[in-house]
TrEMBL record:
This is CUGBP, Elav-like family member. InterPro entries: Cyt_B5-like_heme/steroid-bd, Cyt_B5-like_heme/steroid_sf, MAPR/NEUFC/NENF-like. It comes from Seminavis robusta. Belongs to the cytochrome b5 family. MAPR subfamily. Residues 9-43 have a biased composition (Basic and acidic residues). It comes from the Eukaryota. Residues 1-56 are annotated as: Disordered.
Length: 191
């Protein structure tokens, strides 16, 4: 499983050349993968999922225990601090992200996602835990934003179940308050 994690691509950032450096020299190599750390998350920055997909052949996903339909309480128990298994949910599909310790483990870049439904968080581009496990009627832009991540998660992590909350009609969920709508639409940084 560690091999699969090592193959995951991170966004690449070209470091500017320091003043006085010779032509061709940089502070770090141009092709060194940049990591999105906690300081970036607080600003709400996340890579565009299409930039993470790569053009190579699709990797075969590990076989994992299937859980069937689970409750939100059960999903929450598979958080970043669960030493045996970590799960997350997008549009009701539960993914096993256990293999990605550097992303979803206790010290991971996206540790707060483990054990939660991240659909609204990704859809509105709002980082942090305020919008995790939040079920409100989605604006079309939020739904579209979250849909951009479906192919990425389906290609990277094995599906292992379904969250029962998504058996409900999302149109029956409450409308967001004006304050929630304003907060969700502010600084939408996930493209």
């Amino acid at each position: 499983m560690a091999e699969a994690e090592a193959k995951e691509e991170e966004p690449k950032v070209e470091e500017p050349k320091e003043e006085g450096a010779k032509a061709g020299e940089t502070e770090t190599p141009k092709d060194e993968a940049a990591k999105v750390g906690p300081e970036d998350r607080s600003k709400g920055s996340m890579p565009d999922p299409s930039s993470l997909m790569g053009d190579g052949p699709k990797e075969e996903l590990a076989e994992v225990e299937q859980l069937g339909t689970i409750s939100l309480e059960t999903l929450n128990s598979y958080n970043c601090n669960n030493p045996d298994r970590r799960l997350m949910c997008l549009f009701g599909v539960v993914y096993d992200v256990t293999s990605a310790v550097k992303k979803y483990g206790p010290d991971g870049s996206y540790s707060e996602f483990a054990g939660h439904d991240i659909t609204l968080t990704l859809g509105a581009g709002q980082m942090g835990d305020k919008w995790l496990d939040k079920y409100i009627k989605y604006d079309p832009a939020w739904k579209e934003g979250a849909e951009k991540w479906v192919d990425y998660y389906a290609a990277k992590y094995p599906k292992c179940g379904f969250l029962d909350k998504w058996n409900e009609d999302p149109d029956s969920w409450p409308a967001p308050s004006d304050e929630e709508r304003e907060a969700l639409n502010s600084q939408c940084l996930i493209l």
